Amino acid sequence: MTALRAPGFPEDAVRARARNGTAEVFPAAEGYGSLLFGAPDAPPARTDELDRARLVPPVFMPRRLEKLIELAREPRHDDVELRTGVGGFAASLPLYLSAFGSTRAGSGDLSVAAGRQAARLGLPMVIGENMVPVHGYRRGGPDTERSALLSRIAAYRDEVADGVGGVVVQQSTEDADSEVWNLVYSDPDSQSLLASGRLGFELKIGQGAKPGLGGMTVTGDAESARLAERFDLQDVFGAGSGRRLRCASPGTFTEEIVRQQLRFMRNNFPLARVWVKLHPGRDVADAARVAWAAGADAVAVDGAEGGTGWAPHSFLGGVGLPLAECLSRVAAAGGPGDGCLLASGRMWEGGRAVRAMALGARAVGLGRAALVAVDEDPRDGLVRLADALALEARLLISALGKYRAADLSPEDLWWPGAAPAAAPSAAAPASADGEVAA
């Protein structure tokens, strides 16, 4: 175990879940029969609007009656179906691994261990930007080590079960210069994923850590000299520090540029799924609409709470919309309809995940929580974390009188004080359950 340090993130709680799994969903069993339980004297710290909302079950539950008739018995929480479709892939849970980029947090590359566990769980995994510009693209051989990008793909591919999961490779403007999608699409090691419909590409338009900015990494003197001809390097840490700031362009996007880019992706990589990742901009609903209309299999919204990315202090606390506001604006504009909306940003427990799905998300992305869980236990930490989250989700959805995550809606939420500005009071009927045939 290493000290990852995730400022402002409930790292201790995530580590406990990685160790103990579903036991952490409940109060300590040792206290049963000897302690009195109830609401805490002070509520848990609320970090953003999504955490402020409460899930509110109704008294009358017609869908529970429908389920009772279907089962010929009283339904239970474990009758809740969580299997769903995530951006064209079948997934065992409404979860996916958010984009882990070029940074190798912790000891070694935690993303390789996270990929193995996600594959065992049947969850899609996104591989983030800057992998090839930073680490190169090496297929490996007698005298060379396989590159970080291909190591992550191989780790996932070798563990994934038939019919579920998928790998999505993100591309930024830097990656486009390195032709990352072309390399992966034609690589023999990717062909089994491609042939089984479990390879996808994600166009990165932005991320929650630094909306409107491109990638930023810290480089040493030797690496700076190697990259000087290709990238913008700035000496912001002082002369003699041995470190320089490498800045990447975020890319320039308009509605027509996004349409053309997605058309290019569909035409040039016809067997790959097409995803788009949006930062929490004020026109996020318009951007999502354009992407779905252009054929995106999924639109991922990264709230301002999200992103493990290294960013200026002024961005981390003061730029971009909170995730709840992003989801509410998309819902108020008509919602995803038949499209797949994904949400990421401080996801680590079932309550937050269910609230995001009530606002229209098909699934939620695990970022920092997944890395912390894998750091705690490289073999089973993420599996235990997902088990705890799935149990909470089933308990909560069942308590709402529903038995599919797709049936959640804004009516299941109550906002103390004012709701996010664009939050609808009720949901439109679900047009699809998100199921994907295995």
TrEMBL record:
It comes from the Bacteria. InterPro entries: Aldolase_TIM (IPR013785), Glu_synthdom (IPR002932). Signal peptide: none annotated. Residues 201-374 form the Glutamate synthase domain. SUPFAM superfamilies: FMN-linked oxidoreductases. Belongs to the glutamate synthase family. This is Glutamate synthase. It comes from Streptomyces spiramenti.
